[in-house]
Design goal:
Four copies of one chain form a homotetramer. Chain A is built from eight helices and seven strands; from the N terminus they run αβααβαβαβαββαβα. By secondary structure, chain A is of the alpha/beta class. In chain A, α6 links the parallel β4 and β5. In chain A, α3 runs parallel beside α8 and α6 runs parallel beside α7. The longest helix of chain A has 25 residues. The radius of gyration of chain A is 17 Å and the shape is globular. Chains in contact: A-B, A-C, A-D, B-C, B-D, C-D. Chains B and D meet through β3 and α5 of B and β3 and α5 of D.
């Protein structure tokens, strides 16, 4: 379908994978992945959890940095005015809904952050971790596509990272919101791919790692 | 229409106007408002320029802080990887496409910022200006709804401001993208209103200003 | 003593207290306040803990927002390259050295943040908390004056807050470093006062609070 | 001299140069480098300008990213409360005092930013530029050591970059303030070296660049 976005060349220039990848995981905490909670009942999010778990297994095996986060605050005093009832209750530090989904987190490997706002980059030390790890490409996973994932994609792009979104690793309450947001970000900020593509790119770099490492040591 | 968002109470709790308002204007520069440029040919954006100009006239008369911005960079070296061809050419410092639309800017009144990324809050000194001005409520205007406006709304919310979007003061290339994004942000971050409502709220506070000012001076 | 700073008018213009105050407390965690730890043996820091505890008691009684923090990270992977041996060991999430000094924290009242870098403002959701609380004046306490306190003072100023430092509520390893840093920041960013002055200013505003509140409600 | 800092191992662990260097230049604008202005009369700053110009010549020849900045604001409305009289006058956008020293800037090469606060990293798009350029090591130059340079060093460290300060490329109003600040940051955040060391490290990497580049292309 041709429209004004096409006429102005939106989405025309692919981002591409760079040299050093990282995987960031947005809000796969029980509030959104456990059916006990009202916001945790979306099959579309369950699909994303399963696919992200598989992606993370490869990432960790290949020494790719992984950052996870959950959303929480100290009290109503420091909670910014979320309009969603489901988000405003039970998200205080220590609440069960703030715990990470056990399918996702590896406490011994991942860098974990607590956030209070939509983006995993906002009000966290994620950028320092990525800079220190010399990452140039961020693979964004998590939920929800039309909320905290969208915000994290914008920020990943804004901070200067090549930004890649495996479509099957981000989930939403409703598929229509999921699709509309991937359309927006695919036009401007990020490449929309599959987890299979991400896994292949991670493995390809892992095989080359030894030579790269040697070269790097030589230059330091 | 009932869906999972409704079930989880998204959009249930209105934000409301606070005590001190500011108007921020995103990217009403010639690249997006002048038909000379490929991205400047959307009637939907023209509508937003006209309505924002009227809103700004009232805001300035009532001493409401106004912040404007344009997008630009020094060279290809510091341009992050925008996927849109229309954005990657002619947006260097000093280029005509980076000049503000004359219907919008009042150089003697507005605080003006240069940005290189989607959000007017990102990589600018906007937050210090709002904090110093004791603003608690940010009215977001500009273009495009599905791009830099969406990013600015998320950040306004994240920084802790009550965030208000006059629907007729934000414009897009395509109305479908405009509507989808207002739906997303109205569920989570911001109240979607009209410019008429914003003008009324600004005028109402202006009438009360003298008393408030007296009270403040007494407490300092 | 007259010097080039004086000639250029550094320190000439006082900041002054504004309308709404907050107290932020930097790094009063066991690593720096408990003699069990190498960095926790400075009498100058103990003095600051005692004076800050007294200031916080008044602040909480007067409904002044309080923000505390501790420094910690997930692992060596996300620890930035601190040059100090004492900081690089035992500061992982959950370690005893990351626990707040019991004289300082009130978990039911304070907004608490985890940071990984010098400033309490960096990589935390402190600014959103202060914005939401309509704070215009930040009183900075904690340790060490020549390290994380200095960084926090700069950021408080940069974010647009009036910044006040009660000299007896910030502590250091060595008094010479303490004095040199207060001289620097007093010339540029912040007023250097005593905790007695801060307590008096907090109490004075608290007495006026009922009227102010009434006025505010009327304007909304 | 042994003290509590030494006992706690401050300054013990050197940072070291990484793989990809950048030079950032803080505030070498006429306000601070031209004797026409009150703050521009320090011989210590003149020394730093001359040495930085020499360093930049090598950096540009070796394709090392260079970022410069000047401090300015739109009006008193968006100027945060600097306590120094010399900074509060004549620093508005377009004022002569905001122009870069001609010995320093190369408009065709450098990424240039406008800042309103002490640190070159704060409220600018510097981090995205460094991330996009895959920089892991930031060489900080400019003025003044005890003001905007100190703030920039802290932020460079906080963002996760290896931070290097060539002592002869940063200048101050008074040498005592210069020395005290280098002592503080050398204990915690940055290696204090000379411009000769930086030039040697830049040249050494430049000679290896061709091979590294080939290796990188192979892995992408």
């Amino acid at each position: 379908m041709s429209d004004r976005f096409d006429a102005a060349g939106y989405g025309e220039i692919p981002v591409g994978f760079g040299e050093r990848l990282a995987v960031v995981v947005v809000d796969f905490q029980l509030a959104f992945t456990d059916p006990t909670y009202q916001a945790g009942r979306s099959p579309h999010i369950q699909r994303a959890v399963v696919n992200t778990a598989a992606l993370l297994k490869v990432a960790r095996a290949c020494d790719v940095p992984v950052a996870t986060c959950h959303t929480a605050w100290s009290s109503e005093r420091d909670m910014i005015p979320w309009k969603a009832a489901a988000i405003r209750v039970g998200m205080f530090h220590g609440d069960p809904a703030t715990q990470m989904d056990p399918r996702i987190r590896d406490a011994a490997y991942d860098a974990h952050f607590v956030k209070a706002t939509p983006s995993i980059f906002f009000g966290t030390a994620l950028v320092p971790f990525l800079v220190k790890s010399k990452v140039d490409t961020v693979i964004v996973t998590g939920c929800t596509t039309s909320g905290c994932v969208r915000a994290s994609i914008i920020d990943s792009f804004a901070w200067g990272f090549r930004t890649i979104v495996p479509e099957d690793c981000v989930g939403d309450m409703e598929e229509s919101a999921h699709r509309a947001n991937l359309l927006d970000v695919g036009r401007r900020y990020a490449d929309i791919v599959t987890s299979a593509t991400c896994i292949a790119e991670i493995k390809r770099r892992a095989r080359k790692q030894p030579d790269t490492q040697g070269e790097e040591h030589a230059t330091v």
